Amino acid sequence: MGRAYVVKSRLGYALDAAGLAVGSASTTDPDELEAIMLAYFNANYPVHEIGVPATPEMTIEDSEIHLSATAEVETTLMNIVGIHYMNVAASSVIVRETKGLEVVLVLDNTGSMGTTKMNSLKAASHTFLDILFGSDDENDLLLVGVVPFTDVVNVGTGFGYLASGFRSSDYNPFTWSGCVMARGSGWDQTDEPPSNNARKWTAYLWPDDGNNNWKGKKTDKDATPNRYCPVELLPLTSDKSDIEDKIDEMYSDGNTHINVGLVWGWRVISPTAPFTEGHPYDDEEFNKAIVLMTDGENVMSSSVYTAYAYLSAGNLGTTNSSTAVNQLNTRTTTVCNNIKAQGIIIYTITFQVSSNSVRNLMRGCATEPDNYFDSPSDSELASAFRAIGKELSNLRIGR
Questions:
Q1: What domains appear along the chain, each with residue ranges and CATH number?
Q2: At 107, phi and psi to the nearest 5?
Q3: pLDDT tens digits along 112-143
Q4: What pTM was estimated for this model as a whole?
């Protein structure tokens, strides 16, 4: 009987180890889960131990993993009376406690992405979503937002009330696409809600001038007051098809203001207005993460109107181009630090970036050094999104 109790204990331990491994796996493929279960069971109940076990059995029902196995134990004294073997059974139930997860993809849509790189980004993003959602088309515990950025961000025309002094007549013969300017007085680096006019945004309107002569034109995409305005961002949603559609809408155009894209990613995941889909920062049942991807460095040229207007306006505290870029980099770092201070996990990806300063900027922005991925090729970009997707999937599973 003592030998039987030893076998039962070892059998139960091996089943627990196998169940925990399955419970924390990011895959939902039955064959892969079966392989994980067998590998951990065999590692924790080697064949040379007392008692020869049968193959363990596993069933998964919703959030519960049920495992069972039997082992045949040779008897010693009982062998004298003709009882040569005893069967010992053990079982285990592992409950997968799934936490909620909010993720915002902040994706570079600038002109340098071009068609080829943009297609690679879309493919990698779809792979990322497939890993997170698994076989689900919708999951109330998984919310994903998308913020395409250039040197401005499109919040959507439904947020016109946030734009102080907005006049639709200023855009004739066009209509406002939904892009906004950066807020002044340091409000471009926070998720503070628009409580008064000082904290509101100004609607983006590229002046009709020699750099963009758009008045009287109706069809030229390069001559419009909305020039370089990307597709509208997507607030947090649990509907996978809506997220996929938004990714497919993206196109490349415009210059780069990483900090502008990142701060709007923060506002999308923030519990405060203008987007209120995010759970409170102190909600222990939900984790928050931002995935920031860029293919270039911040740019501020004299001929491009951006979220900070023209360089000559001095809204970055200077009219010198290189000094303005330094200011954009500094503000990027500030936004990164402010986001991390709220407990939001940041992953950063550089895609075919040759600049060491940009790589260092993104490495420093990530929550940890291992959360930064440099991707010199399409395949490495896909691998980066795949690795982040698996990490975030594991984050949702409580043992």
A1: 2-95 (3.30.1300), 100-398 (3.40.50.410)
A2: -120, 130
A3: 999 999 999 999 999 999 999 888 899 889 99
A4: 0.80
